[in-house]
Amino acid sequence: MIRNFVYVKAGSIAEAVKALSTKGARIHAGGTDLLGCMRDEIFAVDKVVTISGIQSLKGISPQSDGGLRIGALTTLADIAANQSVASKYAALAQAAASAASPQLREQGTIGGNICQRPRCWYFRGDFPCARKGGTMCYAVEGENEYHAIFGGGPCFYVHPSDTAVALSAFQAVLTVAGPSGSRPLKMESFFVNPSNDILRENVLAFNEIVTAITLPALTGNVRSHYRKIGTRRAWDFASASVAMVLQLDKDVISRARVVLGGVGPFPWRAEAAEKVLMGKKPDDAAAAAAGEAATTGAEPLRDNAYKIDMVRGAVEETVLALA
Ligand SMILES: Cc1cc2nc3c(=O)[nH]c(=O)nc-3n(C[C@H](O)[C@H](O)[C@H](O)COP(=O)(O)OP(=O)(O)OC[C@H]3O[C@@H](n4cnc5c(N)ncnc54)[C@H](O)[C@@H]3O)c2cc1C
User: Fold this and answer.
1) Distance from the CA of 89 to the CA of which of 70, 147, 170, 257 falls in 20 to 30 A?
2) In 3D, which of 78, 30, 29 has the Cα closest to residue 209?
3) Given this model, what pLDDT does residue 235 score?
4) Contact 138, 127 (CB under 8 A)
C-alpha cells in the first residue's frame, strides 16, 4: 500500500522547483520507477510533484550548432523512434530501444531513466543496507551475481540506466533547474561515486530538476553503437553493456569513447580500450585488443566474474559492428 502524500501538479519549472522545497518531496515524471519505490517504501515520500504536464520539457529539437536538445520528459519510445537521433546518435536510439518493455518505454522518460534509483535487490528489498542509511552492503557476502565489477565499494550496486551509458559516450550536457535558475552539467560530473557519498546516485540537490539533455554536434565520420547483454532479451537490465563512439579519418580511428554499463555504480569509462583503439583501423586485431583492455581494473565479487567475459566480448563485437 502507498502511504498518504500531498500531490502537486506543477504548471511550470519554477512552480515545480518551489514545490520541491522540502526533502520528502519527489519529482514524478512517468512514474514507472517512483511509484514502485513508494509502494515498496524504499524511501519516504510525503509530497509528489508531477512535472508531467509541463509541455516545454517534452520533445527533441535540432540546435543551431548541429547538436540536438532532448527535453527531460521525452519518452524512451520517442527517442528510439526519432530519425535525427537514429541517424546522428545511433547508440542513444539503440540504448533507448533496449530499455525495459514497449509499455514502459511509452511511459518512462529520459529524465526519469537517468535518475532512477538502483535496482540492487538488497536496496529494493527489506534490508537496511548502507545506501538506505544502514551499516553494510549485503552484496559483499550475499548474492552478488548482478553487482559491480568496477568501482564497487562501499556499495556494489550497478547503475541501471541504458540511456545514461550512451549519453556519457556522447559527452552530453544536462540542463538543471533549481532555485537560482538553470545551469549546465556534464554527464561525466552528474553521477556520484559511492565512496564519496553512499546515500545518493547523482549530484542533484533535492530541489533541482533535469530539464533537458543536449547532445553535442558531431563532425566528420562519426559512428556509434550500443550493445547490451542481459539474462533475457526484453524486460531486463544490462548484465553488461557498451556504448561506443568512434570517429574515423581515412579508415583510421582518430577519436574513441568507450563507456560500459551494468558493471559499475555509474557509466564506466573504459579509457584503456579508448587508448588501444586510437590510430588503428577497426579490424579484428584492434577489436580483440580493445576488448581485453576494457577489462582492465575489473575486481569481481564471488559470483560475477562472468561479467569480465561479457565486457570483453561486447567491446570486441561493438568495434567490429562499427568497422
Ligand atoms: C520491469 C522494468 C524493467 C526495466 N528495465 C529497464 C532497462 O532494461 N533499462 C533501463 O534503462 N531502465 C529500465 N527500467 C527503468 C525504466 O526505464 C525507468 O523506470 C524509467 O525510464 C523512469 O522514467 P519515469 O519517467 O517513469 O521516471 P519516474 O518514475 O517518474 O522517476 C524516476 C526517478 O527519477 C526522478 N526524476 C524523474 N524525472 C526527473 C527529472 N527530470 N529531474 C530529476 N529527477 C527526476 C524521480 O524523482 C524518481 O526518483 C525498467 C523498469 C521496470 C519497472
Assistant:
1) 147
2) 29
3) 77
4) yes
Ligand 1 atom index nearest CA of 113? 21
76 Cα–ligand 1 center, Å: 10
Show the cell assigned to 69: 536538445
Cα–Cα distance between 215 and 67 in angstroms, integer?
5
Torsion of CA 13, 15, 19, 20, to 10 degrees: 20
Residue 81 amino acid letter: A
What is the predicted pLDDT for the residue at 287?
98
- DSSP for 7-75 reads EEE-SSHHHHHHHT-STTEEEESS-TTHHHHHHTTSS--SEEEE-TT-GGG--EEE-TTS-EEEETT-B
Residue ranges for the chain with pLDDT beneath 50? none
Check residue 234 and give its pLDDT.
73
Q: How far is the CA of 234 from the centre of ligand 1 (A)?
A: 16
Grid cell for residue 91: 547508440
How is residue 220 annotated by DSSP?
A: S
How much is the pLDDT for 126?
Answer: 94
Candidates 321, 290, 307; CA nearest to 238 is: 307
Q: In whole angstroms, what is the distance from residue 175 CA to residue 183 CA?
A: 6
> Distances from the Cα of 311 to the Cαs of 63, 75, 157, 283, in angstroms?
34, 28, 17, 18
| 153-156-158 Cα angle (round to 5) | 130
Amino acid at 278: M
Amino acid at 252: V
C-alpha cell at 4: 498518504
pLDDT for res 254: 98
Residue nearest ligand 1's atom 48 by CA: 34
For residue 238, the model assigns a pLDDT of 97
Q: Please report the pLDDT score of residue 262 as a whole number.
A: 98
**C-alpha–C-alpha distance, residues 122 and 157, integer Å:** 9
**Length of the chain in terms of residues written:** 323
